[in-house]
């Protein structure tokens, strides 16, 4: 049975200090590197890299351009997390001990993903983003299973990882779809619209799975739903206007977005009643 009581905090060790400093420095390097690679300081934007394979109009599952503004929120949250975990009193925090290295790995993988896309390898980007998703899912599982420690620290950690995981989950399906388009796999007999609906249904199912598993951690699972709903909503908006209009895909994306938004709220409330 899951526990929601605070976990005991032990003595900070030299290994804890090394972890704190490494994660802080690594976070700065990864975030700055990702921003430069994404074109924030005048370089080539991701939408123009790899022949535009990951642009907002490349496939029916591509989120519209405003969706990517969520990265500014995620990067800010990651920076706050890096600072909070480096505070002297947080050295022995059990949850931070369990996930900080993994969070750093996710930031580095994100920077690697940008570098791979800028190098023009859409196939390589799929492998990297899948690795990123696995790392974030691992952090998610650990945070669900570990009791909260300090209220503020746990909230920062949960919200950061939740938003990050939610967005990367949507980005992964968009990335894989882009790779299949570039690889010329075709529509596999079902057609682009039908396959898009299938993929969106899978995304909605994944959001429900996250919600059920994390139902006792609202500070974690609700941000996952918010980020997934954000990305799915912009897929829907992107299919209602512009060069890739598909009303069926748009409607499916909006339904999936609603499922992603409501599921964590419903499962959390149900868990509390029990």
Automatic annotation (TrEMBL):
Gene Ontology CC, one term: membrane
Keywords attached to this entry: Membrane, Transmembrane, Transmembrane helix
Topology class, membrane: Multi-pass membrane protein
Record has Transmembrane as a keyword: yes
Entry's localization field: Membrane
A Pfam short name: TspO_MBR
Record field: transmembrane: 21-47, 67-87, 99-116, 122-143, 164-186, 192-213, 220-237, 249-271
Highest taxon of source: Bacteria
Chief localisation class: membrane
Family: Belongs to the TspO/BZRP family.
Protein name from the UniProt record: Tryptophan-rich sensory protein
The species this protein was found in: Cellulomonas oligotrophica
């Amino acid at each position: 049975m899951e526990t929601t009581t605070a976990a005991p905090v032990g003595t900070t060790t030299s290994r804890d200090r090394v972890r704190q400093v490494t994660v802080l420095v690594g976070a700065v390097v990864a975030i700055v590197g990702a921003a430069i690679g994404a074109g924030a300081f005048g370089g080539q934007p991701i939408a123009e890299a790899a022949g535009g394979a990951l642009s907002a109009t490349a496939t029916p599952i591509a989120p519209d351009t405003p969706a990517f503004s969520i990265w500014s929120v995620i990067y800010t949250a990651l920076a706050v997390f890096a600072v909070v975990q480096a505070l002297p009193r947080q050295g022995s925090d059990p949850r931070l001990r369990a996930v900080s290295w993994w969070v750093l790995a996710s930031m580095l993988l994100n920077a690697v993903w940008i570098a791979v896309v800028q190098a023009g390898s859409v196939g390589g980007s799929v492998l990297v983003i899948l690795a990123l998703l696995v790392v974030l899912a691992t952090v998610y599982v650990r945070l669900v299973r570990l009791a909260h420690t300090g209220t503020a620290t746990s909230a920062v950690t949960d919200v950061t990882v939740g938003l990050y995981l939610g967005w990367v989950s949507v980005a992964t399906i968009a990335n894989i779809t882009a790779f299949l388009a570039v690889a010329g796999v075709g529509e596999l007999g079902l057609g682009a619209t039908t396959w898009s609906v299938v993929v969106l249904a899978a995304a909605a199912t994944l959001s429900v799975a996250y919600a059920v598993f994390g139902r006792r951690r609202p500070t974690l699972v609700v941000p996952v739903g918010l980020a997934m709903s954000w990305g799915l909503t912009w897929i829907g908006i992107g299919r209602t206007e512009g060069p890739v209009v598909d009303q069926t895909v748009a409607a499916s994306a909006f339904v999936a977005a609603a499922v992603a938004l409501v599921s964590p709220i419903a499962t959390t409330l149900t868990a509390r009643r029990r």
